[in-house]
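Lab meeting, action items carried over

1. Structure of the four-component assembly. Owner: GW. Status: complete.
Input record:
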Amino acid sequence: MDKRQQLMSELMDLCNEITWLNKPELESALNGFTLNEIELIEKIALIPNANVTKLAAASYMTRGAISKLTKKLIAKNMIENYQHATNKKEIYFRLTTIGQKIHHVHQELHRSFLDRDKEVFKHMTADEFDTIFRFIGRYRHHLKNITE
Amino acid sequence: MDKRQQLMSELMDLCNEITWLNKPELESALNGFTLNEIELIEKIALIPNANVTKLAAASYMTRGAISKLTKKLIAKNMIENYQHATNKKEIYFRLTTIGQKIHHVHQELHRSFLDRDKEVFKHMTADEFDTIFRFIGRYRHHLKNITE
DNA sequence: CTTTTATTGTTTCCTCGTCAACAATAAAAC
DNA sequence: GTTTTATTGTTGACGAGGAAACAATAAAAG
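Predicted assembly:
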């Protein structure tokens, strides 16, 4: 098989395996929350003035899905919405105090995953890190170019 | 942010972006087929004596989902099932002639995606390829270790 | 052999996300 | 300014996939 195709195929498999392995741990640790809800909280914490459209783009989901998810998170008192006086159309989201707590727990869990996998990174040189970072960066930059 | 966490986060994003970009192209080129159906055909082509359980493990889906998907693919005459005389429980799948055609078209599409993205790989040295391959291999090996 | 345990594939119920249409608002064109 | 076009968020119908219970068969234990 083509070397490039092999690389991308294994990369996809790796990501699937990690997701598949972490998902039940995340959902049982953050009981009562779906993985997607948790990840949406993460995005809202990260993106300033997050609205449905931005969250959809960042989550690789449709606006309809985000619209429903945010409603659920508001009902659970994890997030709240607000608007700017100058724009009656766009609706933004931010975390509530409880939402921030969940966010911190989630980050802690991710640290524990890294700890679980620390031996994978142990023997990596700075150069090797850079090589992979450059590859990812180049690919993402390329995708950005061809989609706009 | 931690360098390792950053790396994994960007890696996940990259995979999501690629999937998100390729999906509509695949589904419109292979009209009448879901992405998951196409990928299942791929797995059946790859795995010798593929059955529901093996396909579920390879696809990161439940056996229930695979059971339904294979039924659909049989209805569409893409695959057929068979059994071994020595085992009345396990049911295996293989591609029909039409299924093989779809499989080839799918492979061709993947080649076209690589061509679209060729500039990402153009300036990569063999060493850089190896570095990334080693990283993926090490990670997957680690995951295999801790899950059994 | 007989009994117990594990594995196979299937089905039903239910949740989640997409799709497509929609009204409301903003931006652009004129 | 007015009109047209684009973008925002929402909704309902629909389909896809997961969870769990199930019968059938195989494997293991005794």
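2. GW to write a short summary for the group page. Key points so far: Residues 51-53, 63-64, 66-68, 71, 87, 89-91 of chain B lie near DNA strand C (CB under 10 Å from a C1'). The beta strands of chain B are 50-51, 79-82, 92-95.
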